[in-house]
Amino acid sequence: MLNTIKFFSLYIITSFSIGLVLLLASCTSNNNDDDKSQEQVSVGQDLSIYLTDKGVMMQGFYWDVEPRFDWWNNLSTKTSNWAQIGVDKLWLPPVSKGQSGGYSMGYDPSDYFDLGEYNQHGTVETRFGSRQELLSLIEVAHSNNIKVIADIVMGHNSGGGLQFNSYRNKDTYTLFNPGNGNASGKFNRSFEDFHPNSIHLKDEEASFFEEQDLCHQQENVQNWFWKNDDSVAKYYKNTIGFDGWRFDYVKSFSPLFVKAWVDEVGGWAVGEFYDGDVTLVRQWILNSGISAFDFPNLFQMRNAFQQRNLRILNNGDALWKTNPEKAVTFVANHDTDREPVISANDKLIAYAFILTHPGYPCIFYSDYENDNYKSKLNDLILINRTIANGDLEVLFADNDEYIAQRKGTADNPGLIIYINRNSSELTRTVSTGWMNKDLHDYTNSIKTGINTNESGDAKLKAPSNGYSIWSLK
């Protein structure tokens, strides 16, 4: 009996010792794995070796910018940095004096030739500064190889004087002369230059500020907008130094007048055709001959994120899908961000989408200057200018996941973007076309690299509620 007790005691002690050794060995193994994982932190290649001549546009304002009267100076301090990250166009707000004077964002144009030099509507400078400060900003931008885009509001006017309007049989604010909202004395207007008049009842399209809706069929309007040697278009381009045009609310007048403007003076141009119907947008760019903001893509992204259905990104239609060279893609602007179309939580995912897909991206000032976004936007802009190349193929899409590949070129590897709207990190095996290669996530969201097999398959990863962008290591 004593021997039996000794045997069981020895068995228990021995079993405990073996278990302790195995436990310690297990802990050591985990530590080694951790160390190994640390050793395998992926480091990508320098993407600058793939640098192309692609750039992005910066929208250089938001609604009700501050500080008032110093905005041109503020932008001047930022152009050098913007040029370094790849900004090649700077879109400015309307630069002329508006009815709201020092509070005007320029979308209530009164005197197209008062760029902050005439005392009218309660101020000399515009909300953004003086004419000289504008000229200095344009000079600084040009020295950094950034083209400057003027915002042109040619559909409606504000701030004129009262006059009897025989076509409306009442007084209307349609008198623009040196004593009534047009201190420059150029482009004087009367009720004959607005709708209705002796030759035209209304625009073919929607009216905006109906009583001050300009008639572009009137010779006086055409001459002063683009035909005369000292027209608005030629003054802005030849004297002030603008390189191109953003046309405001182009649904309010015929695209033929935009075409006439650009045919007369040239310059890169984009129109704000504010509509989610991509068929209408495509028809507008065909008739105007210029680019358009891709509002259909903006609304498509909103629907995909709000409805938690990323299939919409694949199945929905957008301008960039058929006309990438005419599509200016964006996530927010001065209008859409006042009641955000894309929520703050979705903005970086939306920027990752447009900066990896075809089209010409526009970055919104308030987003870029947000410290929570800036470094990630810098990474995405670099990716856009380097490996966002080649044909696009969607590899997978469901409610939570969207995976698409830019196929690259002979000298450029392209990329794969993996968007994940799930609250957990996800993995998905896809065929990459890269055989036996090491891959790196160039957003650095996934710290460890992955490998493709001899068939080109890879088990990609994406962080929770985020995105990863994979390419050759």
UniProtKB/TrEMBL annotation:
<feature type="domain" description="Glycosyl hydrolase family 13 catalytic">
    <location>
        <begin position="55"/>
        <end position="425"/>
    </location>
</feature>
<keyword id="KW-0378">Hydrolase</keyword>
<keyword id="KW-1133">Transmembrane helix</keyword>
<keyword id="KW-0106">Calcium</keyword>
<feature type="binding site">
    <location>
        <position position="400"/>
    </location>
    <ligand>
        <name>Ca(2+)</name>
    </ligand>
</feature>
<keyword id="KW-0472">Membrane</keyword>
<feature type="active site" description="Proton donor">
    <location>
        <position position="272"/>
    </location>
</feature>
<dbReference type="GO" id="GO:0004553">
    <property type="term" value="F:hydrolase activity, hydrolyzing O-glycosyl compounds"/>
</dbReference>
<feature type="transmembrane region" description="Helical">
    <location>
        <begin position="7"/>
        <end position="25"/>
    </location>
</feature>
<keyword id="KW-0479">Metal-binding</keyword>
<dbReference type="InterPro" id="IPR006047">
    <property type="entry name" value="GH13_cat_dom"/>
</dbReference>
<comment type="similarity">
    <text>Belongs to the glycosyl hydrolase 13 family.</text>
</comment>
<dbReference type="InterPro" id="IPR017853">
    <property type="entry name" value="GH"/>
</dbReference>
<dbReference type="InterPro" id="IPR013780">
    <property type="entry name" value="Glyco_hydro_b"/>
</dbReference>
<protein>
    <submittedName>
        <fullName>Alpha-amylase</fullName>
    </submittedName>
</protein>
<dbReference type="InterPro" id="IPR013776">
    <property type="entry name" value="A-amylase_thermo"/>
</dbReference>
<keyword id="KW-0119">Carbohydrate metabolism</keyword>
<keyword id="KW-0812">Transmembrane</keyword>
<dbReference type="InterPro" id="IPR015237">
    <property type="entry name" value="Alpha-amylase_C_pro"/>
</dbReference>
<dbReference type="Pfam" id="PF09154">
    <property type="entry name" value="Alpha-amy_C_pro"/>
</dbReference>
<dbReference type="GO" id="GO:0005975">
    <property type="term" value="P:carbohydrate metabolic process"/>
</dbReference>
<keyword id="KW-0326">Glycosidase</keyword>
<dbReference type="GO" id="GO:0005509">
    <property type="term" value="F:calcium ion binding"/>
</dbReference>
<dbReference type="Pfam" id="PF00128">
    <property type="entry name" value="Alpha-amylase"/>
</dbReference>
<feature type="active site" description="Nucleophile">
    <location>
        <position position="248"/>
    </location>
</feature>
